[in-house]
Amino acid sequence: MWPTIAFGVFLILLSAGLVCSHIAAERRRRTEDLEAGEREYRRRQWRRRMQASTLIGLVGVAVLGGLWVEGPPLEALYWLGVLLAAIWILVLAGADVVSTQSFFRGVQVRRAEEHAALREEIERYRRHEGNGKEHESEPPT
User: Which domain holds residue 115?
Assistant: First the structure.
């Protein structure tokens, strides 16, 4: 019984800590000047993470409440509900991983394109030496 209580309380405290952390991160984000795409990504990320963190707390409460559920049919339905909540937490975590990878892959591609454009501009500048004359440049390193 005590391990069950300890686990339930741990999940509730974990949930509270995560929710507070997400709220603080959202407050910081609102003061930042972000592009529309990143702002939307962060908004959706916050919703997923708040939902998952809140569900962790609800699972903790359910673990504690499970101590008072009696009777095989009711117990089975009760723990099935808890299991479904836990599965939904895993789905949200997976969606967060996929979304984060996709977002940062896009950031990486845009940065590579910007880098290539800057290298090209530097190369044009080297060829013209700033006075309009063609100049033999060294290959880029």
Answer: 2-128
